[in-house]
Amino acid sequence: MSILLLSGSPAAPSSTGRLLDHVGDKLAALGHRRSKLQVRDLPAKALLHADFTDLAIKRAVDAVAEAEAIVVATPVYKASYTGILKAFLDLLPQDGLKDKLVLPLATGGSQSHMLALDYALRPVLQSLEARQVLTSIYATSQQLTWNDVSGLTLDQAIAWRVQDGVDALSAALNVLRQQADDVFVTQAQPVRLAR
Ligand SMILES: Cc1cc2nc3c(=O)[nH]c(=O)nc-3n(C[C@H](O)[C@H](O)[C@H](O)COP(=O)(O)O)c2cc1C
């Protein structure tokens, strides 16, 4: 069980992907295992035709099913999340996010569409029965600076916001794991036989 970093950006290189990697590195530093899935890497025809017989599609859907938590990242395109992310979410079963924690993440060209995650993506995540959708993280292009040598630098304000989001996801995951352990211990109590 691990955290799935799900990127819905069609671009490469991608600002969203860089921010997502940054979040993944921070989660890894807190001891969490993470894996990455980029929707853009899936076979386009199989994605658009919802071809569940395609092995890559099957593996991607399984990766979601196996994750405890998902960081869903998207650029804002036309005031919403991307079409390829929707195409992928449409492949999931109706309760495809059941029991999972979800941290939504977006990058956009300006602050104008910073609510896109909350008015557009959040209802979809909730309809997929996510256990908890954490407070979204939104960064503008101006808050992210890329350097081929030093990598990604975040403005102070977004750096704090990212840290809060990472800490919240990590804490919620730890609570979830503790609860799962408690259930296991309770169920594992030896049955006392009456004499
Ligand atoms: C097709 C397209 C549509 C966009 N629409 C918006 C928009 O409506 N609002 C906004 O704030 N930024 C918009 N942007 C800017 C991107 O959200 C921003 O540059 C983002 O960081 C790109 O991330 P990426 O590198 O992962 O694609 C748009 C960019 C593209 C290419």
Automatic annotation (TrEMBL):
Q: Which SUPFAM superfamilies match?
A: Flavoproteins
Recorded hits in Pfam families, A to Z, give: FMN_red
Recorded hits in Gene3D superfamilies, A to Z, give: 3.40.50.360
Alphabetically sorted, this entry's keywords are: Flavoprotein, FMN, Oxidoreductase
Q: Which residues form a coiled coil?
A: none
- Which InterPro entries does this chain map to? Flavoprotein-like_sf, FMN_Rdtase-like_dom, NAD(P)H-dep_FMN_reductase, NADPH-dep_FMN_reduc_SsuE
- Protein name, per record: FMN reductase
This protein's species is Duganella sacchari
Its taxonomic path starts at:
Bacteria, Pseudomonadati, Pseudomonadota, Betaproteobacteria, Burkholderiales
